[in-house]
Specification:
The protein is α/β, with parallel strands linked by helices and 329 residues long. 41% of the residues lie in helices and 17% in strands. It folds into two domains: 233 residues, Spore Coat Polysaccharide Biosynthesis Protein SpsA, Chain A (Alpha-Beta Complex); 96 residues, no CATH class.
Length: 329
């Protein structure tokens, strides 16, 4: 895709744990390798001064230029850290990537080129799994959302979407005149195997579209690899991820009834049909060739659908919430 303009792109990265320090280094290396030159990076650390100092030392050692290091000593969490990062950006476009992704070399140029006119307020792209262990590859693509990868969406061309994905997204700088990331909808779990209703990216996107009347585009060329840790396919994590997905979808639906896509949960209905009428029959056939793998998929499907429904019901029927939430906090 030919570059037609060269606005400055600010990349905001937030992090809170030394456990991902090597992943952060790999991300910074991929930022340095970008073919698009007009970039700045704003790294926001919190909780760990050691993390801040290690990243500072690495950027100096590797001569990674145009990096601003910020320590969040205020309200902790993903949303406050993102909002703080935005305050330190100078770019025309502000991008956000997770601290455990690796950018393709043309990521920045493709991200910038998604903004062809003023009708586009945000952009997002695919996240491909970077498996920590090859044995994890059994996971069906319909359930890639569990590990924050995007093949479940079935998108293959530039198209408008309801919301951007937080591991790989950007917005026009003007967007932050209308919205901030919500501290109600976003946080960082205290334990890495624990999940919660972190949907500040979805809430921000929906709110922004409704306030501006502009679109968010998915561009399949804006690519990242997202690390998939082994613990993400543990039973506890899957239960929690599924429950909070169901809960957050019901919460967004109640909050944004004015948005037809959110109200109708169109993407979720499409995915459910693919699971029931696509994955289901495929797994039944697989049962005769690879019975253990098929049994694992059937078990996963049953558990995921049950806990998604439980989470959705807990938000829709408040009396049920007190009974269920204690198992996922």
């Amino acid at each position: 895709m030919e570059i037609v303009k060269s606005p400055k792109l600010s990349i905001v990265v937030t992090a809170y744990t030394m456990e991902r320090i090597n992943d952060i280094f790999e991300l910074l290396d991929s930022i340095k390798a970008q073919t698009y030159p007009n970039i700045e990076t704003v790294f926001v650390a919190e909780r760990s001064k050691e993390l801040f100092q290690r990243v500072k030392a690495y950027t100096e050692e590797k001569s990674i230029s145009n990096v601003k290091l910020v320590f969040n000593d205020g309200e902790p969490g993903q949303s406050p850290a993102r909002n703080l990062g935005v305050k330190h950006t100078e770019g025309d476009l502000v991008a956000f990537v997770d601290d455990d992704v690796v950018l393709f070399d043309d990521w920045a140029s493709e991200m910038v080129n998604t903004y062809q006119d003023d009708s586009t307020i945000g952009a997002t792209g695919p996240a491909f799994p970077l498996w920590e262990d090859e044995s994890l590859k059994w996971l069906p693509k319909e359930f890639y959302w569990i590990v924050s990868c995007t093949a479940f969406a079935g998108l293959s061309e530039i198209s408008p979407v309801r919301c951007a994905w937080g591991m790989n997204m950007s917005f026009q700088k003007e967007a932050f005149k209308f919205c901030r990331f919500s501290e109600i909808f976003g946080h960082i779990a205290k334990e890495r195997s624990k999940v919660g209703p972190v949907v500040d990216d979805a809430e921000f996107s929906i709110n922004l579209r409704l306030k501006t009347g502009k679109q968010i585009l998915f561009n399949p060329s804006v690519r990242v690899k997202h690390r998939v840790y082994t613990y993400r396919l543990g039973k506890k994590f899957i239960r929690g991820q599924s429950y909070w997905q169901g809960y957050s979808k019901a919460l967004l639906k109640k909050t944004y009834r004015g948005d037809a896509d959110t109200r109708g949960l169109l993407r979720e209905r499409t995915l459910l049909r693919r699971i029931l009428f696509g994955l289901g029959p495929r797994t039944t056939i697989l049962l005769f060739r690879h019975p253990k793998r098929a049994a694992r998929i059937f078990t996963l499907t049953t558990a995921v659908l049950f806990y998604v429904a439980l989470g959705y019901s807990a938000c829709t029927l408040p009396p049920l919430a007190g009974f269920t939430k204690k198992y996922f906090n």
